[in-house]
Structure formats: C-alpha cells, structure tokens
Amino acid sequence: MRKAIFTFVHLPQRVLGRDIPKLIRIVDQPQLITALAASADNPDWQLTADFILSNMSQRMAQGLREEMETRGRVKEKDAEDAMNQIIAAVRQLEAAGELVLVQDEEE
Fold first, then answer.
1. Residues in contact with 8: Cβ distance below 8 Å, sequence separation at least 6, in sequence order
2. Can you give the pTM of this predicted structure?
3. How far apart are the C-alpha atoms of 16 and 85, rounded to whole Å?
4. N- or C-end of the chain: fewer Cβ atoms within 10 A?
5. Which of 93, 101, 69, 81 is nearest to 21 (CA)?
6. Nearest one of 92, 75, 65, 73 to 6, comparing CA atoms
7. Cβ–Cβ under 8 Å, residues 63 and 97
C-alpha cells in the first residue's frame, strides 16, 4: 500500500534532482508557481519547494521566486490542484520511461 502513496512531499525522496528539469518542462508554469508559493505555509511543502528550486538553474529559480512573491497567498484548493498536477507530471514521465522513482529501503 505504501508504494502506491506518492504526494508532493515525497518528491525529494522519490525523484532524483537531475530529473527536476524534465519535470518543470512539462508542468504549466502557473501551476508550478502556485504549488511553490503555497509551500511557504507548510514546512513539509517548503522542503519540496526548496528541493525543486535547488535542482534548476539559479536564474530560473530566482525568476520563479520573484513570481512566487508576486503570487501571494494561495487558497488550499488551488495549492492541492497545482501539487496534484506536478505529481501527475511525475507519473507521466515515469510511464514514458524518462524518470525512475527511487524506491524506499523498506519496500
């Protein structure tokens, strides 16, 4: 059962940093900004946002940080929708063989 559970907070443990550029290429930028902006309200989400931002070019990360500040507060439903789109993109890349999810030691 645990193997099937994969949410936004699992990204740093399950996705390799080198795969983040592939991911951000297929996620709509407004959705990415919404998910990252929402992370300021939740420490677990913040770890994931930091992981995403640290695995892209500094220039792109800085641009996204500026857009996150402009975005302001995010409604919880909008945040969940955006995070679900990111997870769907991970699943899409995995299905296409472009990304392999890291398996937990316990599995």
1. 35, 45, 48, 83, 86, 87
2. 0.89
3. 18
4. N
5. 93
6. 92
7. no
Amino acid in the structure at residue 51: F
CA nearest neighbour of 41 among 89, 73, 5, 71: 73
Are the CB atoms for 3 and 65 separated by under 8 Å?
no
Say if CB 9 and CB 44 are below 8 A apart: yes
- Integer Cα distance of 22 and 95 in angstroms: 13
Contact 35, 8 (CB under 8 A): yes
Q: What is the pLDDT of residues 9-57, one digit of tens each?
A: 999 999 999 999 999 999 999 999 999 999 988 999 999 999 999 999 9
Q: What is the number of other CB atoms lying within 10 angstroms of the CB of residue 93?
A: 19
Name the pLDDT band for 2 (thresholds 50, 70, 90): very low
Residue found under tokens 């951000």: 24
Q: Output the six-digit token pair for 73.
A: 């507060």
Number of H helices and number of E strands within the chain?
A: 6, 0
